[in-house]
Specification:
By secondary structure, the chain is of the alpha/beta class. It is built from eight helices and eight strands, in the order E-H-E-H-E-H-E-H-E-E-H-E-H-E-H-H. The structure holds D-xylitol-5-phosphate (DX5) and zinc ion.
Length: 218
């Protein structure tokens, strides 16, 4: 299973977003992680479709859109139209998770489901085979720059073994508090898609991306 790096632009300098996207792209990051927050599902509000649409021409990398919004099914078509490739919805935010996952697939996109730290893996029992990816939150969603909650690493390990037991090849993404210091342990636990915001965008963006990719080489 390949590893992929998905830098989170939540920590980017929005006055220089295009330039910073080109830096992560040039350094080799395969995905761009785009955090959409509605101020209801999570306390904060980030940005929405107009921003995603305006940065779409800056890179041809995979747009990995993480929807931290209530009832995301209402907006899937809009996110597809503005250039999303992967759409991640939170299990906790969907009344009809199966229907939401199906709707993402019908739009021709890759569906993923995110779980908050305290949400059990059992929430995925029935939908797992329909998913391209599961996003295991390593922090409570809503803000960049938080510290990883240690028990979530065990959760990644359990999910990888569950996926293997069921003969699936589901990607496992992790998000929140990932640094150059802990990424190796997280990969060893079974994650293969790594989100990182502050550890990439604070400081030398090109150099930080290269360092992550080096630690992620197989
Ligand atoms: C948190 C967001 C993350 C955030 C990660 O709710 O989903 O994607 O940008 O930022 P860091 O890597 O700084 O924890
Ligand atoms: Zn995220």
């Amino acid at each position: 299973m390949n590893n992929y790096l998905s830098p989170s632009i939540l920590s980017a300098d929005f006055t220089r977003l295009g330039e910073q996207l080109q830096a992560i792209d040039a350094a080799g990051a395969e995905y761009v992680h785009i955090d959409v927050m509605d101020g209801v599902f999570v306390p904060s509000i980030s940005f929405g479709m107009p921003v995603i649409k305006s940065i779409r021409p800056c890179t041809s990398r995979v747009f990995d859109v993480h929807l931290m919004i209530e009832e995301p099914v209402r907006y899937l078509k809009e996110f597809a139209d503005c250039g999303a490739d992967i759409i991640t919805v939170h299990a906790e935010a969907c009344k009809h998770l199966d229907r939401t996952v199906e709707a993402i697939r019908e739009l021709g996109l890759r569906p993923a489901v995110a779980l908050n730290p305290a949400t059990s893996l059992s929430a995925l029992d029935y939908v797992l085979p329909k998913l391209d990816m599961v996003l295991v939150m390593l922090v409570n969603p809503g803000f960049g720059g938080q510290k990883l909650i240690p028990y979530t690493i065990e959760k990644v390990r359990e999910l990888r073994s569950l996926v293997e037991k069921r003969g699936l090849s589901t990607n496992i993404e992790v998000d929140g508090g990932v640094t150059l210091t802990n990424v190796t342990e997280i990969l060893e636990a079974g994650a293969n898609v790594i989100v990182s915001g502050s550890s990439i965008f604070k400081g030398d963006i090109f150099g930080n991306t290269e360092q992550f990719l080096k630690l992620m080489e197989k």
